[in-house]
# Entry
Amino acid sequence: MTATSDREQMAYVSAQAADARVNVELDTGDMTLNIGPQHPATHGTLRIACQLDGEQVVVAEPIMGYMHRGYEKLCEVRTYPQCTTLINRIDWLGSFANEVPFILAAERLMEVEAPPRAQWIRTILFELSRIANLALFLGDMGVQIGALTPVFFAFRDRERVLNQIEEVTGGRFHPNFDRIGGLKDDLPKGWIEETHAVMIKMRTFCDEMEDLLVGNEIFQARCRGVGVIPSDVALGYGLSGANLRASGVDWDLRRDANPGLAWNEVDWKVWTHPDGDSFARYWVRLQETREATRIVDQLLGGIPSGPIMAKVPRIIKVPAGEAYLSTENPLGEMGYYVVSKGDLGPFRVKIRTPSFNNISVVPWVMKGVYVPDVITILGSLYFILGDIDR
Amino acid sequence: MTDETPPDETQKIDEERDALLADLSEGLNEILIESHLRPHEDLWIRVDKNHWQDAAQIAKSMGFAYFGFISAIDWQLAPEGRYEDTEFDGGLDEEEDPVEPDNSTGYAGGETRFQLLMQLYSLERQLGLVVKADLGDDMTVDSVREVFPGADWHERETHEMFGISFAGHPTLQPLYLPTEFEGHPLRKDFPLLARQVKPWPGVVDIEEIPEHLEAQLEAEVMAAFEANGGAS
# Structure
C-alpha cells in the first residue's frame, strides 16, 4: 500500500463529510401523495391523501365531500314521488336499482303491494341495471392496471343494456320509473326478444373479459394477494355486496332477505370466493354479471299477466311509522330508513349506501401496501362517488 | 299513535323475531328500555344511552356481526314548517281540517329531541335489528368504533350533521362539510337556504282533475282492475 499524500487524505475526508452532509440535508421522512380528486380510479372526485415511506403507504386517508349534495335533507322537503328523482342520482350507473328499496320502504309503510307483473318487471330492470353497472367495472378494472382494451368492450356492450333500459323507461341513466304501488308503464312490444339477444351478447362479453383479464398473467400478478380483507374485518366495517362475498361470506340480500321481488321465483346461485383479495373481488363480480344475465333470461320467460299498478290514491300520504328496507344493489347493500309522520313527504330519510361502508375500509386495507397497489385496491373495491357523498 | 299495533297484525306471529327479542331482553337485561316489533318486518329496541357501547358489544356477541349504519333522528318539528312556509303550503289540503302537529317519537318510544340510530344484521339468524338510544342535553355518547370499526365514519357524519359527540373517537373532523362550516345541517331547525330564497313550486305536483271527469276516470280504473281479475 502506498502512503497517501496529505492532500489526498484531505480530499477523502472532505468527500466523506460532504456525503454525510447530504445525508443529513436530504429529507428521507414521509412524503404525502395525493391521489385524486381527479383520478380515473375514483369514479368521481375522491381524494386519497397517502403518506408514503418510500414506496409504501403509511397512512391513507380518503377525503370526500366534493360531491355532497345533501339528499337526506332535500328528501325531507319533498313528497314521496319527488324523492325518487333525487335517489336516481345516488349511484348513477345503476339508477333503477336505487329507486327500488325506497319505493319498497314506502310501500311497506302504506301496506301496499305491487302486483306480481310489476314485481317481475322491477326485478328484470333491477338486474339490467346491475349488468350495466358491473359491465363498466369489469372493463374499468383493466384500465386501472394498464389494460386499455377491456374498457372499450365494456362501453360498447353496456350500451346495449342501456338501450334496453331506455326503451322501457325513457331514460338511459335516470329512469325514474318506479312508482309506489307499481310501475309507470308496461313493457314495450318486442322488448322481451331483444333483451334475450342482449343477454346472449353480455354473456359473450363476460367470456371476453375472462379471456382478456382473468386469465392474464399480468392481471393476476397485479391483483392476487393485493388488498386482502378477511371476513371478520369485512363484517365489522359493514362491507357488502361483492366485496363481502369475495371475502368468503355467503350473504346475498336477494336470496336471504327478499323483500318481495321475484328473485326467489328463479334458479340462480350466489358466488363467493375465499381469498378476499382484489382478484377475488373482480372474479365474484364477473360471475355475478353472468348470473344476472341468467336471472334476466329466466324472468323474461315467465312474466305473469295482470296490472302493473296497485290501487293507490293519486295523492300519496304515507301513514306514520318507520321502516328500514335494503336490497342487494350492484355495489352492495343499499337501504333507506324512512321515518314518516303521515305527511305527503318523509320526516327523515337515512340513506345507507354501500360505497360509504365499502370505502371506509380503505385506511385499514391500505396500510403498508405499495403505491401501484393503491390503484388496484381502489379499483377493485369499486365505488361510485355519488354513492359515497349522497 | 305509532306504538299501537294495527289490529290485523296481531294475528301474524313472527316466531324468529319473538325468539330474538326474548334473547335480547335476556342479554341486555336492564339496558333495554323499550322494544317494538313489526311481525315479518323489523325489530326496534331502545337502550340506555349510558350503555350504548355495552349494547353494541352484547349485540355483536349475540351474532349481530354485520354493521349497517349509525345515524340520528331529530324529532323536533321544523320551525318553518315542512315546506318552509312557501305560498303553496297546504295547497293540497284546503278542504281538510288542519293537521295536528305530530309530536310522537317513533317506534320503541323516546323522550328526548335527538335519538341515535344503529342498524345491525345477524347473518346466522338472517334478521336485522334497529337499536335506538335517547340523547340527553350533553349530546354525548360513547363511541362504538372499538366494537365495529366501520362506525368510525358514521360517527363522524353524525357528529357534523347533528352535533352529537362521540366520546373516545379520536378524529371527529367533518367528513363532508368544509372545515369552516357552521351549524348542523340535518337538524330540523337548520334552514334550507334554497327554500328560503325561492318558494318550492313542486309542493303542488299533481294537478286537480276536473270534477266532471273524476267519476268517469274512477270507473275506468275500476273496470280495468276487474278485467284483470281484481288483484291489487
